[in-house]
Fold:
Amino acid sequence: MRTGIVPVALIWTLASFPALGQQTSNYPQKAIRFIVPYSPGGGTDIVGRVVAKQLSATLGEQVVVDNRGGGAGMIGSSMVAKSAADGYTLLMTSGGPIVTALNLFSKIPYDPILDFAPVTLVATYSSVLLVHPSVPVHTVKELVAFAKSRPGQLYFASGGIGTTQHLSGEMLKDMTGIDIVHVPYKGSGLAIIDLVGGQVSVYFTTPGSALPFMKSGKVRALAVTSAKRSAALPELPTVAETVPGFESVAWIGLLAPSATPREIVNKLRGEVVKALANAEARNILAAQDYITVGNTPGEFTEFIKTDMARWATVIKNAGIKAE
Structure:
């Protein structure tokens, strides 16, 4: 073996360490992009903009939201997976492209586990189980009994195949043995319009979307889908009080490309935690029934794995395919 000769590649690697360390310690030095893989105006976009505004103030660099919708969130997610791992291009996303896409689609353009470094779980939110007033039930127990007496005669709406609304309905079917028919719509707005009109009987949606119709008596709320009762709707029981183990909670989180330095990931997580503690941000999100979290990268990683396993079972049992 030849000695005394250091490979050129090793020289380059060693020489780059001080520069990398300097870049990490001085991060950020330019604008940061939050890629939101959906159109403007949705929940992920709203949460992303609230956090971006706070981070812009505390980091001293602009944090901008870049909406890249399409492909069930996979287009924007793929952009981040393939971006430079320098902390300047990040993914602010719901769980769809990360926890359910792999089981819904035969092929996706990234690996949800290997291609991302989870930064923090920003917020979670539950849904409300609604029925049209013509359905003669007032509890989850009564709904299950009514559906069992009329197999295939009740229709439940969703904003599309593979959405949280759809999977919540499939989970209820799987755990209770009821036979209700899924009707996918091109968006949540159309779904709730048809629920109000009586074209469908059952629908899961966010409290913010449900409240105006609940107050007017155009829909009836039976329960919330979180493990614990909602602070916004404390009078409603959880589905789990009737169907033990039922939990359907959607989430929004921040992820980076997988090779992003740990120091940058940790700094981002700390800054997001501070942003979520800001009174203005907290009030905006609480008003829409978002529960802020801000857990560690390790905790977020485990959360994703658990959520992925939960929905994989539902999708497999229901035989759902988005293609």
In short: Residues 297-318 form the longest helix (22 residues).
